[in-house]
Amino acid sequence: MSYSKLLAVLLASLLMGFFVTSCTEDDPVDPTNEKPAAPTNLMALSVNETTIHLKYDISPSEQNSLFQDYFLNYWVVGATANPMTMTVAKGVNPIAVTGLEQGKVYEFQLVARYTNNESSETAATVKWSPAARFELTVNDAPIRVYETASDFGSGLQIYYSNEDGPRARTVSNSAEWDLGLRTVGNTIMFGSATKLGYNFSTAPQPTFMMTDYFLADALNNVFDSKAMDEGDRNTKYAETTLDLATVAGSQNAIFYVRKYQPGKTRYNYAKVMVERNQTSGGFLHGSTPNRHLVLHISYQRVEDVPYAKTAVN
Amino acid sequence: MKKIAVYSILIAMLAATLLTIQYAYAQDTIKGQVISLDEYLTGGTGKVTKDKAKTLADAGHAIVLKSGNTIYFVYNEDGSFAGKRLASFATAENVGIVGKTKTVHGLNIIIMTMIDAM
Questions:
Q1: Within a 13 Å sphere around the CA of A200, how many CA atoms are in the beta-carbon half?
Q2: Which one-letter DSSP state was computed for residue A61?
Q3: CA–CA dist B112, B65 (Å, integer)
């Protein structure tokens, strides 16, 4: 081989070396394109008029060293062009989403993210709307309905718009009853005012309760994944009552309720929790003749928005 | 100002007496309306809005229960004057108070164990 040919081969080898080296150093390739598994079972509860809590089953990929965090997208249903976002650190569960507006239904989508910029291919989703919470009447008193023998009211107006809250009603205000209590013998009948058997001078308007009821320790630690009228739930509302003396266990009872407010043609939805007396184990509190039920209410002030507070399903 | 001072003295006198007598009397349920004593004594019905009743109570004015033609000064079980508690019921058509009733120095008092709208 001539001297010049040897020089050309060496030069070509050197150039090839540069090419290979520059490829590996200037254009690094991620060690993996692996994607995390998605979180699942996203559920919601309304804390108040502006806040929702979201709970989820964590991604199985949380143990992977690539796991970074979760990412929440949410928007008002029908307004997908303006999504809001939130980064959710590992371990934050439930997620508090604030700054929402009552009466608007939001769609939430939660994905998991890896540090390699990959996100889960699917998302956990839920739709929900914040709702008002009432623990006191318009008189700043605990929400109570009293036994039949009491001089105090056995009826409840779930929402009195003039004073923005619930209030107890007596038989003399019968037209304003939504729900009520009737105690006869050992029975504790609670439910639609029209079905309690009182002799009202003016009949109340219909109030519908879902025939299924739910048990929970508190409104704040149970979540729901579907609307109060979704699927077969919509067929289960009726003017009805339940004998609370037959409700076993140690938990509180939660009822789904809907009704037309005066002059309206669309339902307002509420969830009403009857608090169990932890001392006696029953539902009546206090002593005769003023034994009473203690109620907690989540109320959706906006018509036709079937999301209010929480339920176990 | 003079009115507030008179109320304060009356309330203090009553509170001192109440603690010694409160357990000697039976529980009654008194039904009536929550009113402002100022408004009533100046010739009105005494009915005020809830917000005004709260403002008056916070300023030391007497918020009381009127049952028929009887005016009741209402106290909590700990001996404190319950005007602020009553103020929340100012807009209720009727209020029921469960408690012990007594006349002290010519004034009607209730030591309240429970209150609710009726």
A1: 22
A2: G
A3: 11
Among the listed residues A139, A154, A148, A115, the one whose alpha carbon sits nearest the alpha carbon of residue A33: A115
Which three-class secondary structure state does DSSP give residue A158? strand
State the ipTM, two decimals.
0.77
Map out the domains of chain A with their CATH numbers. Answer: 32-128 (2.60.40.10), 132-299 (no CATH)
How confident is residue A230, by pLDDT bands cut at 50, 70 and 90? confident
Q: Strands, DSSP E only, in chain A? A: 40-46, 52-57, 67-76, 84-88, 95-97, 106-114, 124-128, 132-134, 143-146, 155-160, 165-169, 179-184, 187-192, 208-210, 214-216, 237-238, 241-243, 252-260, 267-275, 292-299
Say how many CB pairs under 8 Å bridge A and B: 38
- CA-nearest residue of chain B to A163? B91
Q: What is the pTM of this model?
A: 0.81
Within chain B, which residues score under 70 in pLDDT?
1-26
User: Which tokens hold the place of A313?
Assistant: 């399903």
Please tell me the predicted confidence (pLDDT) of residue A12: 56
What the block records as the tokens of A106 is 């939001």
Residues of B with Cβ-Cβ distance to A163 under 8 angstroms: 50, 91
User: If pLDDT is split at 50, 70 and 90, which confidence band does A224 have?
Assistant: confident
Residues 6+ apart with CB under 8 A from A197: A182, A189
Contacts B115 to A, Cβ<8 Å: 141
Cβ separation of A141 and B116 shorter than 8 Å? yes
CA dist A227 and A229 (Å) reads 5
CA–CA separation, A216 and B95 (whole Å): 33
Q: Which residues pair with B75 in a beta bridge?
A: B81, B111
Nearest-CA distance A125 → chain B (Å): 43
Of A145, A141, A167, A179, the residue nearest A256 (C-alpha): A179
Q: How large a percentage of chain A has pLDDT more than 90?
A: 74
